[in-house]
Amino acid sequence: MSDRIKFLLEESALPTAWYNIVADLPEPPPPVLHPGTGQPVGPDDLAPLFPMALIQQEVTTEPWVEIPEPVRQVYRQWRPSPLYRARRLEQLLDTPARIYYKYEGVSPSGSHKPNTAVAQAFYNKQEGVKRLATETGAGQWGSSLAMACAFFGLECKVFMVRVSYEQKPYRRALMETYGAQVIPSPSTETEAGRAILAKNPNSTGSLGIAISEAVEVAAKDPETKYSLGSVLNHVLLHQTVIGLEALQQMEMADDEPDIIIGAAGGGSNFAGLAFPFIGRKLRGESNPRVIAVEPAACPSLTRGKYAYDFGDTGGLTPLVKMHTLGSQFVPPAIHAGGLRYHGMAPLVSHLYELGVIEAVAVHQTEAFAAGVQFARAEGIVPAPESNHAVAAALREALRCKEEGVSRTILFNLSGHGHFDMQAYMDYFAGKLEDYEYPEEEIAMALAGLPSVNA
Questions:
Q1: For 379-453, where are the alpha helices, taking DSSP H only?
Q2: DSSP 305
Q3: What residue stretches are annotated with the Tryptophan synthase beta chain-like PALP domain (predicted)?
Q4: Mind giving me the DSSP string for 116-149?
């Protein structure tokens, strides 16, 4: 095997279609339910929030969905993204493992999020929508959608979780540079926000609260649609461009992953890398271990309940069956803002229930220690969210060392941490605390789950 470090695809190798894992599932995922009737939702129920093209993608069972040429044209600015062999990290760990990472931080906004933001902006523009409303935690999604809206001439309104709004002023500035209006959530602009502030004027916010605000704005304005950065099927579908490229790049490396790892908050970057490989696994073409890594402070897969729940705190969204900590759950203010979500994507949750994937939880101090070790070996400073995947990759590489076994590890480095240096400063200053969420608090949040006969 050569000493090659990076595996680059030509623009001509950019995938022409997204991969839909639903086509290969041994059991179909549970339906999305209307919160009022408890019956499966139809296109008309979702039309106030999403353009019809995205609603069709949400429910399709076709294995492939064509990527429109205007979307591919934007993708070409940074896609195909590089795959790297982490040779210096391997040497540092003295491990027989072969470690590869797919690097999504090369996008203009610095993460994997534009893969779906560009697609969503395109489909909304096609339907004549004037503006998009959304939520953001760490700001990676908000800045990606702001950029995509600028590309397609749409207005963009972002409700940013208040703690992240205060922690990450440069992310906020980036969104505003792209032309977005950024509002700290909970805010006084919506009924949902005012209700939260009436109960707790010092609320640090949550993704669930910010979603409620954005959904409310879209539902009340016929010229505004809602845009979501993770969780839903069409979002995960758009992200599969990552794994489809990685399949080609692993072939270039003449290697096959034994272990595939991704950080998991709502599930989009994990699914983006893993789903094309899981498709091969479901078809009997390979059999890798696939590991979703979540923060111990927001452990929806490892400690949540598989149940129907709202995607937001205000109960404005349809009911989806997912691993959830309860829509009233407000996580502690850890720095991995993109992973602070009460639920996991329904498709990721379904695969976990089927035993197709594994899940582990990592504390933020271990995650940041891993990120620093990675940065000193590979030169790239990962986003706090990505550090969780790095930590799990290091665990597996060190296990290979202990067992004297060479395995191939592939993980998604979903974004860079250039806007997150305050988090690293806090880590070096010893200010980061590990937070094990108490069982009684999880039980209290789960006690409010909606009653569903399904």
A1: 384-403, 421-428, 439-446
A2: E
A3: 77-415
A4: HHHHHHHHHHHTT--EEEEEESSSHHHHHHHHHH
Q: Which tokens hold the place of 273?
A: 């890398």
Show Cβ contacts of residue 114 under 8 Å, excluding neighbours closer than 6 positions: 74, 78, 107, 108, 144, 147, 148
Across the chain, mean pLDDT equals 94
pTM over 0.90: yes
d(CA 268, CA 339): 11
Q: What is the CA radius of gyration of the chain?
A: 20
Could you tell me the sign of the dihedral formed by the alpha carbons of 189, 154, 342, 169, in that order? negative
SS3 content of the chain, % helix, strand, coil (to 5): 45, 20, 40
6-13+68-110+234-446, which class in CATH? alpha beta
What tens digit of pLDDT does each residue of 78-115 get? 999 999 999 999 999 999 999 999 999 999 999 999 99
- Give the end-to-end CA distance of the chain in Å, rounded to a whole number: 52
The residues spanned by each domain of the chain are 6-13+68-110+234-446
The alpha carbon of residue 243 and the mean position of all alpha carbons in its chain are separated, in whole angstroms, by: 14
Tokens 């930590």 belong to which residue?
A: 391
